[in-house]
Amino acid sequence: MMNIAVFVSGGGTNLQALIDAESRGEIKNGKITFVLASNENAYALERAKTAGIESAVVNRKNYTTKAEYDRAILNALEGRNIDLIVLAGFLSILGEDLIKAYSNRIINIHPSLIPLFCGDGFYGKKVHTAVLNSGVKVTGATVHFVNEITDGGAIILQKAVPVEQGDNEDILQYRVMRQAEWEILPKAVSLFCEGRIKINGNKTEII
Questions:
Q1: Catalytically annotated residues
Q2: pLDDT tens-digit series, residues 70-92
Q3: What's the CA gap between 101 and 99, in Å, rounded?
Q4: Pseudo-torsion of CA 201, 149, 11, 59, nearest 10°?
Q5: Which of 60, 78, 141, 160 is the most exposed place for a label (fewest CB within 10 A)?
């Protein structure tokens, strides 16, 4: 059974989707054993508490550099035997040390169809604003491995979601979460824990 750490910064809707999927038996060979928040006001911490999952706060504001923040996170993970880190609405960019320490063992959910509307500066509602301003008719979500390039790691799963007339950022964000994120994130976590993801360069193969 693989130990999963979920990193959060806000409301924790994707964390809840993972908790619910685990309780339904949909995350095979994996268990969420730890939640780490980048700030003490993240409602996701309440979700972890309700589910009986141990949590900790490592506040980004307390560290001046990425390297210092990485060290603090690595200290929080020490002794927990974490096999997979899931970034579920985690708004702090990870540094080189943490990415190397958990190479090909960190996955992220991004609210667009990468390589569109991604990279530095594209997070949260900013992604949906850019989507609406562009006039595209289809958006979606992507689960990918994390590397040194923001949103640049190998893609695991994607799902498309329509952009509808009259959408605003809130409506589109909720549709993308409900129809894509909450479905493909638990699925990707399960695939990882089952050992069914093979990485070839910057591409993945589901086996």
A1: 110
A2: 999 999 999 999 999 999 999 88
A3: 6
A4: 120
A5: 78
